[in-house]
Amino acid sequence: MLMLRQAALDRIVALTGVSPPDLQRLRRDLRESELPDILVQRGAGMAFTRELPQGALLYLIVRATRPRVILETGVRPGYSTAWILAALDANGFGSLTSLGPGPTAGRSSGVREYGVGQLVPPSLRSRWTLALGNTPERLRELLATARPVDLFFSDNGPDVARARFELRAAWESLAPQGILLTHHVDANPAWSDFCTLQGLPPQVLDPGPPPMGALAVSAAGRDRARS
User: Fold this and answer.
1) pLDDT-derived band of residue 6, with 50, 70 and 90 as boundaries?
2) What are phi and psi of 179, to 5 degrees?
3) Contacts of 106 (CB under 8 A, 6+ apart)
4) Domains in the chain, please, with CATH?
5) Is the predicted pLDDT of residue 182 greater than 70, yes or no?
6) pTM for the whole thing?
7) What is the C-alpha R_g of the chain?
């Protein structure tokens, strides 16, 4: 878990504005977390343990930015959800709304065997709202209620039309210092196309597997995403 790529850590500094010494402090806190063991105890198998480094990156971003409102899509077992909630708990601040259940297309066969939210420990659920009904209409409702959103994490499967919709809708709902994250950016061209609209090459936080993209509102103009 702690073997994080230095390039990814450097991108977190650029993305969030956290100072390198403060990021090191957050990494020390992370080393003391019991969450990896808890996830395994709750049934996280190899399909998820290989993503431990990216769970740690999510944790560090949430700790560094101290978001008030986080919204994620595509929740199923709740692996990423648990990391985000652990960071909110450590911050003592903020809430997460998760839209699901997410699709199993493109994921390993074992993922469909998990219940929705199965990996989220009860001790972390006080800051969590699980919103069922994973449709574009439901997402519009959540964004209208939650905006401005400080952090949006898109993890809703390989469907390119859905991915493009989510990225645009989320971008328009983000706070001025908001951050857009998306998982499995190699699954379709939606992320690279979105970054092109910002006049940027594809913004990859970490190559994975699976690769994760990240873009801050402060790094690109919002108007270009509407063109």
Assistant:
1) very high
2) -130, 135
3) 157, 158, 184, 187
4) 6-226 (3.40.50.150)
5) yes
6) 0.93
7) 16
